[in-house]
Amino acid sequence: MSRRTSAKALPKASAKTPPVGTRAFTRKARAAEQQTARKQAARRQTAGRRQRTRPSIRLGAVLQGIPTTAWVCALVACLNAVSWSFITPPFQAPDETDHFAYVEQLVKTGRLPSSSAKTYSADETIALQDLHWSAVHLQPENHTISTRAEQQTLQKDLTRVSGLHISGTGAAGVAASEPPLYYALEAIPYYLGSSGTLLDRLELMRLLSALMAGITALFAFLFLREALPGVPWAWTVGGLGVALAPLLGDISGAVNPDAMLFAVSAAAFYCLARAFRRGLTPKLAIAIGAVTAVGFLTKLNFIGLAPGVLLGLIVLTIRAARTSGHAAYRSLALALAIAGSPIALDIIVNQLSNHPTLGLVSSAASSAVQHNSALSEISYIWQLYLPRLPLMHNDFPHILTTRVLWFNGLVGQYGWADTIFPPWVDDIALIPAGVIAILCTRALLTSSAVLRHRLGEIIVYLVITAGVLILVGSASYVSFPKEAAAFPEPRYLLPMLPLLGAALALAARGAGRRWGPATGALIVVLFLAHDLFSQLQVIARFYG
Known about the structure:
Low-confidence stretches: 1-15, 48-57
Number of strands: 2
Shape: globular
Radius of gyration: 31 Å
Structural class: mainly alpha
Strand order of the largest sheet: 1-2
């Protein structure tokens, strides 16, 4: 075949008719453009739906992100505190008489208490009389009422007085100088129980505190998830250990702002741990500031945690500034503004009500002036927790405060600190406590490289702990030497419950991969047994 023939056989390309390959490419391009347009339209439609329902989706995403085990720990803590609320007689929990009077004052008058006198309302006074409160209070040899006649008399008197209009007395005892947030929340169950007697309202208020115990355990678990991400099963050990802590159930089973303080403190630990692991975002800065503000409005003891929280914000800001620049400092300013707002409000309220400017903190700060020696106060605070150093004056002769005041108190000191275990129980408790301490130390030593990398975070937690200890010691020093230890109650240490959970989780990990889960299960069983025997001890004290 010649070239001419072959050339004629080929079709001539036309300007109006693209080649076959070109037409296929054009169809594919048009299809791709149409698909892209459909995707963009779908994205705009989805974005519109998200914009309209953003709050609920965000809340749902947050709740879905919480593991089921965390909810189980919260439920266990809540039910445990509920059981404590049932077995503890009315007003036989620390300062519950004053905390109830604060709520009643708030509901009846709409004003904060104006006096620290122990002048209770008519219904509370009648209840205390019929319950033989003064005879049972701080006298372990006396039991609460138990006969049918005593119960009928109590119920009759409370029913009679419940229909009367009872005005507030303006007095709330030691609770008078506390911030109002917890008491304002407790006013809700008080109002819901207004159709019943005083004891009905008291139990409803106790149930709200029990709910806060569940929140404490929930945030303790979440703290462990952020602080110890390596071994998830260890989170359950620490979370259940916190949930079953007898002292948490004892305090959270009563009307006491400590119940809310524990929950807020656990939330602060969680927010800090999350920020250290994921970075300080504006949302986390707002969360830390809001939790701190709630803490200040809950109880003045939260001031002990404030230096550590502030240090944490500063460290996190310096880290975030390396990548986000000035935005990190704006987040810090926002967090500080939110956190500091209740302090200014509390100062104004205390000034108008003739209270100390910062309540307990003001009294503690004046103690050094009263004793004319800051060094003596430092020495006292040291000896309140640790063995005396050689050059220190012996403020606690004949006792080792670490063991007698704190360890024995954590083993078993309930009610008005008048319900305790026999001394041999405290001695036996040293064995499991020592084993847990050894295993925890082993886990820390095997993770020394990680500890060096997270040194800033660890220092923050240590500063929080030191702040709480110093606050309690300074408040106790106000009454020294008239009282050697005015505030030796271990419940003041419970804001550090998340750190207890971390110690238990580390102890389980310290047993190694093979024995770690079994050791963790044994720790949980140990805490369960401790909680059950503690409840039996309270039952024997008041009803035996």
